[in-house]
Structure formats: C-alpha cells, structure tokens
Design brief:
With about 260 residues, this protein is α/β, with parallel strands linked by helices. About 35% of the residues lie in helices and about 15% in strands. Strands 3-1-2-4 form a 4-stranded mixed beta sheet. Strands 7-6-5-8 form a 4-stranded mixed beta sheet, sandwiched between helices. A two-stranded parallel ribbon has the order 9-10. The chain starts with a helix and ends with a helix. The structure holds zinc ion.
Length: about 260
C-alpha cells in the first residue's frame, strides 16, 4: 500500500467511526465513554477537550485512559483525561444511554467451533476454538461493556456466509467489517486485507508496508490481537525464513488454511 493510500485509509477509519463526530462536537456527554489519542502529539484526551483540531489519520480511539497509556500516550495537560471515571458502562448508564448491542451466533465449520458477532456497523468478531463453550467467554472478554444477544434468526445468514468463506477464502466475504483496535492495529489489519489468498508476507514485510520497518514485534502482536479470524487474514503472515511462526487460533488451523489456499 502506498503511504498516501495508507494515510487515506487511516483517515477514513477515523472519519467513519461514530466517536469521531463526538470529538468534533466536543460532546461532554461522551466523556468517560471513550478517549482519543493523537499520534502527532503523543497525548490522549477526553472527547470534550478544547484542543485544536487534529488530522483524523493521526487519531485513535481507546476504551479507557489505561488503554491509551499502554499504547504509549500521556494524558493531556489541558483536559486531564486521567481524572475521569474509568468505566464507559457507568458513564453510559449515567447519561441514560443503553449499552451497545452485539449479536452473535455459534456454529461449526471445517476449522472447528465458530462464533460470528456483529454490531450495527458490521462483523466485529470471528472467533475459533475446538469447542463452542470458550467462544462466548472470549467474546465477553473482548466486549465487556456491550449487551451480547444470541441471534438465532437474523444473524444466521451471516454465520452461514462466514462458515462458507472459511472453506473458500479466495472468494470475497462481502460483509462489512467493524474492526476495533488502536490506530496501529487498524493499519496492520488493513495491510493484511491486501494480501491475496495463496500469497504470504513476513512480519518484517508488513512492518515495511505500513512505514514502520522496526515495528516487527508490534506487528506480530497486532496479528495476534486480530478479532476477525480468517476474514482479516493474519494466517498469511509468516516468518522471514518462511516458517509458519505462531497463530492465535492454533498452528494446525494456520497450516490447513495455507495448504488449502496454495492448492486453490
Ligand atoms: Zn485534552
């Protein structure tokens, strides 16, 4: 991906996020529900901060101040985001807003048990395991503030589409993806989406493509944090010597996916 294309993709990811409108409006009701960081200044703010306008490609959203600080940002001296109550859920209830609803369904595919979840914006999780039981716990851990609703009817077509896609990863999944992560993770995942079935790239190559050639370890961590198994093809990232390296969803699944894609 060219740097200009890449910047545009990052800017679009921010602009399409409903939280961006809250930041532009400096909405005090959004305070405590999320935080945003600015790459060019290294600070993070509450949504209502009166800081000067920032470019959307430099902005990432965080569920908590602690998350922003783990990503390397320091609290803004002006709006003091570290003094806010940390729980977005509590803030949401205080303002009378319902928590976000995420619908999910669990089924089986050739890779084992499969959980598919979607928000109002698109697929937000595709999780794999040997058995169905751990899948819901994984979903709860990833969306601690959402209201999770099992969807037997409306969601079932999504489950079937994803299960079918797992068998034929060279085809287009053609469903909107709601990829949630830091700005850096989004960059890595966007780059993975550009690796076609049957091809692979090394962690170092992905780091070069996003213009951060030294961030190889961080790229590997972003791959491991990918919430959309198979759809965001982190299985196509391998070691520079061609070795398979790790896979969040198990090495056997990675080997099987790559073998199928090489034969397709
Ligand atoms: Zn601020």
């Amino acid at each position: 991906m060219k740097p200009s294309t890449h910047k545009a993709a990052l800017a679009a990811a921010t602009s399409n996020d409903p939280r961006w409108a809250r930041v532009l409006a400096r909405d005090p009701h959004a305070d405590g529900r999320f935080f945003y960081s600015v790459k060019s200044t290294g600070v993070y703010c509450r949504p209502s901060c009166a800081a000067r306008p920032m470019r959307p490609e430099n902005v990432a959203f965080h569920a908590s101040g602690a998350e922003a600080e783990r990503a390397g940002f320091r609290p803004c001296k002006r709006c003091r985001p570290e003094r806010l109550a940390p729980s977005p859920q509590r803030a949401a209830t205080a303002h009378g807003e319902a928590p976000e609803e995420i619908r999910y369904a669990v089924g089986r595919c050739s890779l084992g048990a499969l959980l598919v979840a979607h928000s109002a914006r698109g697929l937000c999780a595709i999780l794999l395991d040997d058995e169905p039981e751990p899948l819901l716990r994984d979903l709860q851990r990833r969306f601690p503030h959402a209201r999770l609703a099992a969807d037997a009817s409306r969601h079932a077509p999504w489950l079937a589409r994803v299960a079918g896609f797992v068998e034929h990863t060279g085809h287009s999944l053609d469903l909107p993806l709601d990829m949630r992560g830091t700005g850096f993770q989004q960059q890595v995942w966007q780059t993975l989406l550009a690796i076609p079935a049957g091809a692979t790239a090394s962690y170092a190559e992905v780091a070069r493509r996003i213009g951060a050639p030294r961030a190889v370890r961080a790229v590997a961590q972003a791959c491991a944090a990918n919430p959309l198994a198979v759809a965001v093809p982190c299985h196509r990232v391998v070691r520079s010597d061609g070795g398979l390296s790790g896979y969040r969803w198990g090495m056997a699944r990675k080997r099987l996916l790559l073998r199928r894609e090489a034969q397709a």
